[in-house]
Design a protein that fits this description.
Strand content: under 5%
Number of helices: 4
Shape: elongated
Structural class: mainly alpha
Order of helices and strands: HHHH
Distance between the termini: 25 Å
Helix content: over 70%
Number of domains: 1
Oligomer: single chain
């Protein structure tokens, strides 16, 4: 199961990196608007990485924030893209929320296992 979660997390990260740095015409659009799309994408990435790497949550959080910053900086060289401080903040907060959600799911799973043993 962990192998599948890790694969899903990395596939999501690759898809978001492509959508962020690739040609603007290939980026998916939804009714959520740009900030909503960013928030949803990075919330899902945070959740996926938080579930895939539960033993390294703090390190995963630090790496996620650093990579999100790197992706924003790389947009300076991506044609048709614009690096924005507000995008970084939304993306980082959403990823942290996803990681926090994963921690909550992990906590609930541990408690339910303990309750089943009693």
């Amino acid at each position: 199961m962990t192998f599948l979660l890790k694969g899903l997390a990395w596939l999501l990260a690759a898809a978001v990196a492509f959508a962020t740095l690739g040609p603007p015409g290939l980026r998916p659009h939804s009714e959520l608007g740009q900030e909503g799309e960013h928030a949803l994408a990075f919330l899902l990435i945070g959740l996926a990485f938080g579930l895939a790497y539960p033993q390294r949550r703090w390190l995963t959080t630090l790496i996620a924030i650093a990579v999100i910053g790197l992706i924003e900086v790389l947009q300076f060289w991506a044609p048709g893209r614009h690096a924005r401080w507000s995008d970084f903040v939304v993306d980082a907060l959403a990823a942290c929320a996803g990681l926090l959600l994963a921690a909550g799911v992990g906590w609930i799973m541990v408690r339910s296992r303990r309750a089943g043993l009693s």
